[in-house]
Protein: Putative thiamine biosynthetic bifunctional enzyme
Organism: Sphaerosporella brunnea
Amino acid sequence: MSSPKKFDLSVYLVTDSSLLPPGATLVDHVLKAIRGGATIVQLREKKMATRDFIKLGRELHEATKPLGVPLLINDRVDVAVAVGCEGIHVGWDDCSYEDARKLLGDDKIIGLSVSNKEQAEKAAAAGCDYIGVGPLYATKTKPDHSPPLGTQGLRSLLEYIATLPGPEGSHWGGAWGTKVPAVAIGGINLDNLHHVMYQSVSPQHENKKYLSGIAVVSAIMASPEPEEVCKKFRKMVDEVPPFAVRQSLYIELGNAKFKSIFQNVVINRPIVHHITNNVVKNFSANVTLALGASPIMSEDMSEFSELAAFKGGLVLNMGTSTREAQPMLLAAVKAANAHGNPVVFDPVGAGATSLRRETASMVVGNSFCDVIKGNEQEIMAVYGLDNVKQRGVDSDPAAAGSLEHKITHAKALAVRERNIVVMTGNVDIVTDGSNVCLCNDGHGFMGDVTGTGCSLGSVIAACLAANPLDKFVATCAAVCAYSAAARVAAGKKDVHGPASWQVAFLDTLYQLRHCREDAPQKGYPWWESLAERVEKR
Ligand SMILES: Cc1ncc(COP(=O)(O)OP(=O)(O)O)c(N)n1
Ligand SMILES: Cc1ncsc1CCOP(=O)(O)O
């Protein structure tokens, strides 16, 4: 048990002098990092002889102490005692917490590593000052690391920790897990930091930030610009990520609002980058054009960053994806995330094969997807339910749950991912985890023309890109308009079957371009009643 201490874990620099760029010295590098915004430092030198470790520790402490930045020593209590620094970080093969506390005294900071529930329970029982949770991602910096948690594993471990009581009579007051400062560690860099911070927030604890900060080795130690890198880390730890999906209690679902969503598509003409399956590329491009947005197909990683700089949307459809394509899919989402561009992920067939499950969980666990759109079994497979048996890419009607059951699963995934989930079916469900909208529309021809399910992703992405502050309403508008257009097209006099319907469907979607309030309403009033077809739960 320990007394409360004041320290800031926002950007926790863990050193490794073997990674320093040529010509750099450890103390100078750390000082630059502190100037950029590193708030606490751990001297972690795995291969250094004790005498050198102590010498370097003293030298570093002389530099950090006047700046008020705590210096901790990795693993070695003897070195920490000799240096007289502010504390240590220990793992489970090192000196025990109790022994370290006895040797260091009550006023020193002691941090413990946590990689699983058992370690979390022990750390809670000890009542240490903070925990380092990881490894989040695989990293070469710690070759002997345990299996990476991924963001989903991190989130569920943090959620579990939040339930743990602290040591009796301690300042944690019996709610250790909701109070103990925690940092994530392992593979964290400027590309994934926003995602890590965003997804570690607990919806069950009034959106409390679970993480007090992040601990980083290579992204700072190997950088030739530690000051600049730390400035960016510090800003990203504090700010709301650009891709955040705002949840609001009040959502405007009127016809005028829906029309404004499509108006903004025509006005902004967003680029929609598609990585989609071979079967639907042409149709998805035409659907995107019909709305007034601009489709582009690219599977070449070298241009993703430039494409993302156009500030459009990304459709990621894993319909005909391969194992070799996994890094390419991830690179596309990361480029979109880095620019705050909306991502619509379509985990086609996620419940059908292990490769698809693996790809879906790799995308969702390593990036942020504003919208995950899939049928019931795809959504359940992404949620991680092992018993999902999807036959091919379609939802199996025999395995279908009740509407309430579907809503529960769609909401659970949206809550976990802090995003929007669209579960397509007889009734389409759109939810951000708290708001739920149902859309009961469409036409049977949709099932007879390949690509109609996938191209809904293009419409959602165009609407999100053109309405970035209204992501939930934009998604509802996209889903409702798409299925209403299917019904309206099927009723046209020249439509005799799926082929003529497909043509009429594109024409009907094209009419949405004219739904501007100031445009003459020449016999195209079908969008006027869109909002009336939405049931808000
Ligand atoms: C902040 C922080 N968290 C976790 C660790 C890992 O410590 P440990 O498990 O002791 O592994 P090594 O660092 O000794 O390889 C850490 N060092 N810092
Ligand atoms: C010390 C440690 N503990 C878990 S992962 C890790 C290394 C993190 O290094 P990096 O930030 O370079 O991935």
